[in-house]
Amino acid sequence: MTIKERIINSLIRAALDVVYKIDKSDLSRIPMKGPAILITNHVSNLEGPLFYVNLRPRKTIAMAKAELFDKFFTRTILSTWNAVPIKRGSIDMQAMKACFKVLEEDNFLCIAPEGTRSKTGKLIRGKAGTTFFATQKKVPIIPMVHWGLIDYEGSEKSLFRRKVTIKVGKPFYVEKKEEGKITSEDRQKMADEMMYQIAACLPEELRGYYSDMSKATTDYITFM
């Protein structure tokens, strides 16, 4: 870890600990070394710093929308953390190669299957394309969720010392168990099954599109 990264991590960790009361005890369920894919809900740009500094010393690299690299402040932090810029709406071969390298080097790749931030804090439907890395590299997938960063109830209460909770679910593999090419329909079903595992870690009121857990299937999932 560089001196620059140590300074940035220390400042961000201190700021988060001052503003929030963070229950991060569940992070002990994540191995100290990869490779693995961490999948999470996406409600705020703050979740990147929240996860990154609290997962250390685990080497974790996330994908981030390319627009975040346009601003000096966020570009400095994301570049220091080796985040992979993603051009949304197109096939970004350079980003894909960078993500594969993360896993090949036995690190953790963090992705948000929803593909965009939820404006309500509740889960929206996962994107089929986010299953690509899970099917190309047979590595464990670990659900890692959070809630409490954002107030969606219009509360006038101070944000100071708001409780933030991080929960970790059961690790699993994703694959097509029947012979044949993986179709777009397969990928959407895989994404939905991954999202149900995220939903299982969240409070019921935040499960959104995946609130009906009776619809959860494991046709493509094998638990470790």
TrEMBL record:
Keywords: Acyltransferase, Transferase. InterPro entries: Plipid/glycerol_acylTrfase. It comes from the Bacteria. The keyword Methyltransferase does not apply. Pathway: Lipid metabolism. Its EC number is 2.3.1.51. The keyword tRNA processing does not apply. GO terms for molecular function: 1-acylglycerol-3-phosphate O-acyltransferase activity. It holds the Pfam family Acyltransferase. Coiled coil: none annotated. SMART domains: PlsC (SM00563). GO terms for biological process: phosphatidic acid biosynthetic process. Residues 36-149 form the Phospholipid/glycerol acyltransferase domain. PANTHER family: 1-ACYL-SN-GLYCEROL-3-PHOSPHATE ACYLTRANSFERASE (PTHR10434:SF11). This is 1-acyl-sn-glycerol-3-phosphate acyltransferase. It comes from Spirochaeta isovalerica.
